[in-house]
Amino acid sequence: MSALDPIESYRESYVLRSQSDAAENTVKRHVRHLRKFNSWLQDRGKDITDDIEVENDLLRFRRWMKRRGAGTKCPACETIADPFEADCPDCGADVAEGEPVGYSEGTIKNAIGAISKFFQIQRPEDPNPVDQWETTGSDGKWSITTEKKRATREGVFYLEPDEVERLVEAADGFRDKLIIRMLVSTGMRRSELISLRLRDVEPSQKRIRIYERKNDEYRKLGFRSDKLARHLRMWIDHHRTQEYGADESDYLFPPDGKGDSDHLGETVVRDIVVEAAERAGIQDDYGTDAMGRTQHLVTPHALRATFAVQCAKNNIPAPMVKEALGHHSLNVTDIYTSVIDDDAADMIRRDGPSF
């Protein structure tokens, strides 16, 4: 392989920067996605070192991944052939008339993430097409991806304020209502929520600290909601003490007695949101995943998107929101200063959505 291969160079740079055992597995997945993206580009007369356009390249690749990126099912033996090959690797049959096979949304998201990371490391001076897709302009104005049809996975699915309130009301019990309010009022990931320790939460200051394991740093979150601050205080002082395992756990949400974890599980959080949405009459499905499981629209991730969209509607600059979400923006490097971190938390606490 050529020493000038940009994808191999990316692999080496990624491992060198990360300096962890897990980096090798992560970058292997990245390289696989990047090579597929490069092959797709080369079929169109470009490669990964060229200017990558949002509409003509990134979004078309995303649609291609969804429709046929995984390959083509051989009509003779049903083996999945590589999408860039004309013949079945098992029986040698022509697969031109075979059924196209697409990737799941999760895999597509990982592929887009790999492209974004490639630009951050290998092409830091060039516009990152993934960031251009989400934001436009150095002042952090938001693009109108949120104006696409809300009930599809092509746009950004989010809830309106009245739907959020219906979701909270339909949740079962104080803990579940609090979890939903936290997710939608801060934009945190469910993995971040279940990893919160008591020392990370300051209800009176409307501030939460999120530990980011990959860089061994804390990200500060602010929130605006007085109701959330009150309910957090009530949870810590009273309701939490009655939960299973609370005495032995220093996590904000102790385990529910299922499994060996010392905090609540991600699946539990997902079920809380999905089931509350069904009871509230706002749940919808958009198909099944590769395992045949129903894919729901109202999930913890949808609450994260709701937070971001409402911040945008409240005119909070996109780089500030992306900092709160723990994402990279067009003009923000991998290393964020404590000043930007504090500004983001303060602005969210003052002007963020309040549910």
Automatic annotation (TrEMBL):
It comes from the Archaea. The keyword DNA-binding applies. InterPro entries: CB, DNA_brk_join_enz, Integrase-like_cat_sf, Integrase_catalytic, Integrase_recombinase_N, Tyrosine_recombinase_XerCD. It holds the Pfam family Phage_integrase. It comes from Halosegnis rubeus. SUPFAM superfamilies: DNA breaking-rejoining enzymes. Coiled coil: none annotated. Residues 1-123 form the Core-binding (CB) domain. This is Tyrosine-type recombinase/integrase. The keyword Transmembrane does not apply.
